[in-house]
Amino acid sequence: MEGPSVAEQCFGCSKVACRVCVTTLKFLTSFNMKLYFFWSAIIYIGAATFAYIMRDRIMFLPCPDAAIEANACPEYCNDVPPQYKRRLADSDPFSSPPATPRQLWPLADPSRGPRLRSLQRDNSTIGSDFSSFLAGFAGGPGNSTDAQAAVANRREKCKQTDCNVDVNLALLLSTYYIQGCIALIVSASFAYFDTKDEDKMGQLSCIESVMGCLCKKVPQSVRLLSIVNLIQLALLTCQTFIKEWEPQCGENDNLKNTIYAMSAVWLFQLVLGVMAKQTLRPPPWMFVPQRRGKGFVYAFGRFMRALGP
Fold it and tell me: Which residue spans traverse the membrane (predicted)?
């Protein structure tokens, strides 16, 4: 019967845990600057693409098929309150009449457009006959062949103005795209310099000098944009989870999922950058001596250098 391995004796871990540790160590030892920036680019671009897709779902809701058939999307988007639009989009009552239409359509303000006013003249009609909603809302049943063709060819959306996070989301995905592009350029530069001998590094062309400057200076801008992303994530979190700030944002599940995913990406990238700073050693031609100093600028520079290689 075989006894415990050396790793098990030294660290007291199971075989599965030891295999995970060994695999992680092999990955870290084979990791280099080129791979670090390449995977960083993949993570940043993937996060930005996810934020772009979710931004459309957060800020817009589809115009229902029945409103498209009746050519009434402008009235639907402008006259129906936002909170009911979201409930309608979740339940899709246009495919079949709801059991209690009066609860689903509490359009209490008669001044929200002429077609809605015609609906509210008789509330009992809303409760008894759901089809009268479409007739009063769109000015007619709207079941012509041309209107039905519009359903398949035209998918209109209504902008949601109840949660003002459009600017923050746009800035967040823009910074992630910029970080991804910068990391991809730096990764390509490192891949190019890996093909050159160290003896030839003393004589560089103008393009190679620019690439070397990118490898030395540009990663600092990536770390600076990470601080900008942290501020944007904190602002989005406050808007979503502080009800007194933006009450409607807390009801948006797509926004919550986006914040969770973006926060996880930011934390993962932070851990990856700190680990790379501790394990990776830049090539000799990238060495820049750090002078001792004091004050806020010096402390901030040390903090930024600790976030990544």
Answer: 35-54, 176-193, 258-276
Query: Structurally, how many domains does the chain consist of?
Result: 2
Note whether 79 and 115 are within 8 A (CB). Answer: yes
- Residue 5 covered by a domain: no
Name the residue range of residue 173's domain.
29-58+164-306
Residue 236 domain-assigned (yes or no): yes
Burial class of residue 297 (count of CB atoms within 10 Å of its CB; 0-12, 13-18, 19+): exposed
Together in a domain, 87 and 168: no
**What amino acid occupies position 49?**
T
Q: Provide the terminal-to-terminal Cα distance of the chain, rounded to the nearest Å.
A: 47
Q: Give the model confidence (pLDDT) of 11-48 as tens digits.
A: 455 566 666 655 655 555 555 777 777 888 888 888 88
Same domain, 102 and 186: no
Which tens digit of pLDDT belongs to each residue from 184-227? 888 887 777 777 766 666 666 777 777 777 777 777 777 788 88
